[in-house]
Structure formats: C-alpha cells, structure tokens
Amino acid sequence: MPLISEYKYWMVDKMITSTSSSQVKHIVNLQKKSKSRKEEKQFVVEGIKMVSEAPKDRLVKVYISETFKADNEEFLEKMNYEAVGKDVLEIVSDNVFVRMSDTQTPQGIMAVVKMSEITIEDMFGRDMHINSMNGKNDVNNNTDSNNAASKDDNSKNDNSGNSSNTIQPLLLILENLQDPGNLGTIVRMAEGAGVTGIIMSSNTVDIYNPKTIRSTMGSLYRVPVIYVDDICKAVDECKEKGVKVYAAHLKGTDNYNQKDYAQPTAFMIGNEGNGLSDRLTQKADELVRIPMQGKVESLNAAIACTILTYEAVRQRL
Predict the structure, then answer these.
(1) Which residue ranges does the chain devote to CATH 3.30.1330.30?
(2) Does 54 have pLDDT greater than 80?
(3) 4-114: what CATH class?
(4) Predicted model pTM
C-alpha cells in the first residue's frame, strides 16, 4: 500500500487550481448554506485537529493546500488516507484553498464529513468502562446495550481492578437556540459531562455551521446529536423511556440542586432571549431555577446548561 508521501508523484497534475472547479463550488456551498448541508448530509471541518479526529468511515474528501502538503508529509503519512480510499485526498493551490476556507487564516487542511445517523433511541444510555487506576473513562456507544443502560445501574468489577458501569441517560433538550458559539460550547461541555445525547428543535441554529463546529473542538464527533421536527413529541418519547424532564425556568419554585438527577434525566434549555416556549414548558415534569443575585434575570444558555448538567454529574459520582 503506497504511503501518502508517495502521492506527490501521481497527484501533482491533479492539483485544483481554479475557483470554478465543481469541487470548490461544492465546498463553498457546504460552508455557507445550511440547506446544502442538510440535503447532502455532509459538512466541512477545517484544521489539523478537526480533520485528524474525524471518523475515517465518515470521511468523504480531504483537501490540503500545496504549502500544507510540502510542510506536513510526515503528518499525512501518519494519517494514511490511502486506507480510506485512493481518491479521498485532493491537493489545492494556496490561493484556491483560501477561497474554500471559512477562516481568515486557514491551516491548509479541510475535510468533507458525513453526518452521523442518530436516533433518539441511541440516546437512552451508554456502557462506560471506568478505569479506576488512571481515572479515565472509555465510553462506548453501543446500541445493543442502550436498553440495558436504562434498566441496570449495577457496577461489575473485573480482575484488573476496573469497574464496568452502565450510566443512566443524561439528555439535553434545546429549543430555538440561535448563537452558534453557544451551541458549540454546549456540545463540548456535553462530552466532558458524559451527556448521552442532545435533542434540538428544528429551529435551533445549524450545529454544522462552521462557527459551531470550531466551537465544539471535535466533540461533535463523539456526542450524539439530533434535530427533531416536533420537540414536544420528542419530550414525550423521553418520558416514555422513564426519563424525568426538568425545565430551567424563571418560574421554577425549587433550586436546581434540590432535585435527584441520579435517575434518567433531561434538561430543557430555551432560546437565549425568550427562554422556553409555553408549549414546551408545559411538557416539563418540574421547573427548576438557578438562584441569582443583583439585577440579572437570566444566564447565558451555555452557562445555565453547564450548571445544571454538572450538578447531575456531581450527584452521579
């Protein structure tokens, strides 16, 4: 199998040098148009971190600038994109790459990635292997074990001193969030907190927006996310699975830290300016509030989401 470093001998004549190239137009459309991303179920990521962490089975194309190729052959050899497919790697002239990029200072590498195919069913629990020696968690998304995840929370010890736990569902339900940076921050936080899934209303900002993608710092690949046409129906599905649904709301009578989140839990977070709609608020099992002082009436959506989620994490330790 040839190494990526050998590509320079047969790909030099294939360099994309024109902004009128169909591939360049395709990338620009995916970068700028949510409709194109939804129709093709693909999105664009940029930079070494985002490209190198992309699941190989979801890679469609990798584009590198001529300068990146010359300066990073060792990296390209290590990534071994030949294993993905002979035509997965494309070289682009520097000036054309700038046209394709959504950033002011492109790193010289981007990729087209297929969206993951997730259902709400996939979010109701995951098997977690906890290494008690180094404190690191190895989380496996396993559809076959999802049902067991919501039924059995017993720990099992193995001979290596590790314990294998089943974590209870911990979901975020987001309605009409509009700030890409907020959503990206929530996704990144969700990975750190072990959130089993994020359910979003169809009018929430596109999670595959380039700014949102950058904000996730790669967590988008590892946190199950889904858009739904009927967010209220999705809440009903969660309840049917035994998930208790809490709404962060100014009318909440109890502080958020007075509830039991060790059980299957979902937190609903609303629009940055208007909060949750009345229709969705009525679906909550309970309304909770985050106590605040001064003249502050509400918190940034990502901050509120983090406070609630990490209280659940604290209770589950």
Answers:
(1) 4-114
(2) yes
(3) alpha beta
(4) 0.82
